Amino acid sequence: MHGLINAAIQSFVSHTYGRSKWVRVMQRADMEFTDFEAMLIYEDDDTRRVLDAAAGELGRPRAEVLEDLGTYLVSNPNVESLRRLLRFGGVTYVEFLHSLDELPDRARLAVSDLDLPALELHDHGDAQFNLICHPGIPGYGSVMLGILRAMADDYGALAILDHITRPDRAEEISISLVEASFSEGRSFQLGARTG
Fold first, then answer.
1. CB 3.0–4.6 Å: which of 89, 90, 139, 185 could bond 155 by disulfide?
2. 191-194 contact pairs (CB < 8 A, 24+)
3. DSSP assignment string, 59-122
4. What's the pLDDT band for 43 if we cut at 50, 70, 90?
5. What is the pLDDT of residue 85?
């Protein structure tokens, strides 16, 4: 598993629940270190153990922790770069949804050895969509659910989302766009701020 993914989990738990909680998670996962290096590659089992330990330490189901991680990745100023990458997908929430098929390729442009599982959007018309999250990262669909919720808020859209586990190990998210301009979204400028 790419270290960026593990570092994102570490950042989420540390910033949301405190450094001491993160240290307890790593102890509970029986890891021999406390900090992940973002540019290293780790065993997939390390990530699974840390996720299970985080869910146990927080007393919450793993899927809920992962959904909160997805929300954190979009809404927390510490990880503004991911929000920027996602917002380049379009001016509206619907344009953003249609850009999700390209997300793994855009992520590879930023980090060449980061392989995200494929995403496949199905537009059923009448503001109804399904996003297929192909297997490859444990809990990817739950993280994407949190990202989609946070991005709806970011765009000012009102959307109803539901996570569906499929028999083929892929995960599916149904998306009903109730209102595209429900509220004023967060401001976004194409150019990054300097200074």
1. 185
2. 192/84
3. TS-HHHHHHHHHHHHHH-GGGHHHHHHHHTT-SSHHHHHHHGGGHHHHHHHHSTT--PPPEEEE
4. very high
5. 81
